[in-house]
Structures are given as C-alpha cells and as structure tokens.
Design a protein that fits this description.
The chain has 402 residues and is α+β, with helices and mostly antiparallel strands. The protein is built from eleven helices and 20 strands.
Length: 402
C-alpha cells in the first residue's frame, strides 16, 4: 500500500510550515529532534508550539539557533547531510531539495551549483527545517508527496541581495511547470525553502488524490493574516486506485455565507449576479443565526475554475466578511434543449429521460403577449414537445383568447 501526503498550499508553503504540518499530523517531534542530532552541526534546538491561525488549531515549529551570519555553499550543506547517519530516503530527499535550490540559484546568479552561496536557505534554521521535514515524512511512512496549486503573495521581501519582488525569483524558477496563483496578500507566502521542498519531492499536483485518509495536520506560518488562515494543511492516507471511480460525479465547489443584515432585495440581486457570473445554481435558505437573529445562508454551486470569481461576487453583493467553501460532486441527468412554437412564440424545452419540461421564463414571455395564463402556455409547450416525439397527440388548440 502506497502512503501519500498531500500538502494544501492555499496560504503558500515554507520550511517551518511543512515541518509543523507533519508534526501536527502525528510525527513525533522528539524523534525528529533526535534524528536531527545526527547532523554534524550544533547550536540549535527545535520547539513545537500549539497555536491558532485564523481560528484553526495548528503547530508552529520554532528553530532556536545561536549563529547569525554563517554563509554556506551547496557543497558544504551536501557534505553535512551526507556525513550524517540518516535513513537512506531521508538523506536522498534532503539532498534533492538542496540540489534543486543550488540549480536554480546557480542559474539566477550565473554560478556553478556547487559554488552557490546559500544565504537565508543556508542557515541552521533552513537546514533543520528541510532535513526535519524529510525525517517527519519518514516517520509517517510517506511514500509519495503530492501538492495542490501553490498560493503566492505580493509586494517586496528583504534578502541578502537587497529587496526582491514577491514571489521571489528563486520561488518562480523552482515552481516552473507547477500550478501556482497569486492572492491579494501583501506578504511572502511561499518561501524558497518551501518551494524547493515541493519542487524536489512532489510527485503530482492538483486536488486531493484518491486516498483513504488516516491523518491530517496544520503547520503555522509566522504571522496572522486577515484574508486567510496562515497555515499549510497536510492530508495523509493510503492511496486508492488511480483515476476517478465509475460513479464519480462532476466536481464542483459549494460556496456559502451567513448574512443577517441583508435585505430581501439584495438577496435576490445576489442570486442573479451569481448566476450571471456562471454559477450552476444559487439559492437562499432562512436560518436563525447567532444571538437569535433571523438570518440567511446564501449558497451557490460553481465550477472549480470559477470559485474565485463567484466568491468575489458573493462578498461584493452581500458585504459578508467571510465565505466558506467545500468540494462536492453532482450527477446531472443528460438533457437536450429544443424549441417548440406556441401560437407563433418560441419556447425552450428541456428533454431528459422520461421527462419533458418547458422553460418557465420563455413561457412567461409568451403568456404575457398571448394573454394566457403561464400554466396554460407551459402545458401547450410540453404537449407540442410530446407530439414531436410521438409520445402523445396534442388536442386541437384554439386561437389565443383576446
């Protein structure tokens, strides 16, 4: 059985977040520290803190060090890792991570990889983060690492080379061919160390792989963010057969927001705006909210690719301070769209197995022009559709009543 770890990088990824997520998922921090002591370097210790980010319980990994300005080359770090008595897979993963960093940094600074000087990523804390993450993966028995699309912040970040844009050049290079996207957060979300771990270790990108989940955890970022919980989620489980099952449905995202200060007119406008933005469906459910207030849940079903746009529409229309989302599946019945004539007016017909239904909006327009009840136009349209299919013969229809 293959054991998978899937990192959900909705708030980016850093080395300490990766290690924290795995410790939160069950890797014994004391064993991680004991294994790390095999490295032929001293002056460090690790601490696991239980914290909250955006209301989510998570583990923050703090690496305490005494050094401040040691600059190591890739060759020096590779020698440290090689010399340590580490499990084979731990050593291979750690060496691969720093090799990817050296390759990218060498290309950016036009230097041979072995002569690349690591500044931030060559410090004790970065070495401990990378090797500690590889040890934690081994403790959890992880055979394959997978990851979601990777979020990136914006702005500038200070480095040994001065101010650099976010995402940093090394991060961009490390994530070539990986799915990544920007969010409106004025901080560095994905660090070179985190990007290197993904680049070296990830065997696949995208949504949560098919697995039987056995554990999950959250690794804390260093700061609290207003927009999103600043955590890296890891999901651990046993891989199932690749590919969607025979009963797999259409993947969608369900977005919802609770509102208690929005008028009925605004709620109706919100539904219309969501549908205009491409939502498959949108609806409002009355509830009793906090403090006993009458409230509503605004819900919408959207394609995965349209979730960000729909979330923005929901927030803009209702003024809500938060939107939640979950991945769902649906199994829509196959259908076709046809047109029939009701006294010269075109009405759309949806046809599915054993079902024929006239489009209400078309019937309402025709009814207003013909001076007939909407239900009468609906009936005649569906009878006309049945006649086309030979299902029934419609009764003679008289002229429209004036």
């Amino acid at each position: 059985m293959t054991t998978l770890a899937w990192w959900h990088c909705f708030a980016g990824i850093a080395g300490d977040m990766a290690l924290g997520s795995l410790v939160d998922a069950g890797a014994d921090v004391d064993v991680v520290e004991r294994e790390l002591s095999a490295l032929p370097i001293g002056g460090w210790r690790i601490e696991a803190r239980q914290e909250l980010r955006g209301g989510l319980a998570c583990t923050s990994m703090v690496v305490h060090t005494r050094e401040t300005s040691v600059v190591r080359t890739h060759g020096h770090i590779a020698g440290i890792i090689t010399e340590a008595r580490l499990p084979d897979r731990v050593r291979e993963r750690a060496l691969a991570t720093f090799a990817r960093l050296a390759e990218v940094e060498g290309r950016l600074h036009r230097r041979p990889p072995d002569r690349v000087h690591f500044h931030e990523v060559g410090g004790l804390d970065a070495i401990v983060d990378v090797v500690g993450t590889c040890i934690a993966l081994e403790l959890l028995g992880i055979d394959e690492v997978h990851a979601s699309a990777v979020a990136q912040g914006r702005g500038m970040v200070r480095s040994a080379h001065g101010l650099l844009p976010v995402p940093a050049p090394a991060v961009v290079e490390l994530l070539v061919d990986a799915p990544t996207y920007g969010v409106d957060v004025a901080h560095e979300l994905t660090t070179p160390t985190g990007a290197a771990l993904l680049s070296a270790l990830s065997r696949g990108w995208g949504p949560l792989p098919r697995m039987r989940v056995t554990a999950s955890g959250y690794g804390a970022g260093t700061r609290e963010l207003d927009q999103i919980p600043n955590v890296l989620q890891v999901v651990v489980g046993e891989a199932l057969d690749a590919g969607p099952g025979p009963d797999a449905g259409q993947p969608l995202v369900l977005l919802e927001a609770n509102v208690d200060d929005v008028t009925g007119e605004v709620l109706a406008d919100t539904i219309a705006a969501l549908l205009a933005a491409g939502a498959h469906d949108a609806w409002v459910t009355p509830i009793v909210g906090k403090k006993g207030r009458p409230a509503h849940v605004v819900s919408t079903l959207v394609d995965v690719a349209g979730a960000v746009r729909a979330r923005g529409v929901m927030a803009e229309q209702t003024g809500t301070l938060g939107v939640r989302g979950s991945q769902v599946q649906r199994w829509p019945a196959a259908r076709t769209v046809e047109y029939v004539e009701v006294h010269g007016h075109s009405v759309r017909i949806k046809r599915a197995a054993g079902r024929v239904k006239a489009e209400h909006d078309d019937a309402a327009k025709a009814a207003a022009r013909l001076g007939l009840p909407v239900r009468e136009v609906l009936r005649r349209a569906e009878e006309a559709a049945a006649a086309l299919d030979g299902m029934a013969a419609p009764p003679p229809a008289g002229p429209p009543q004036e």
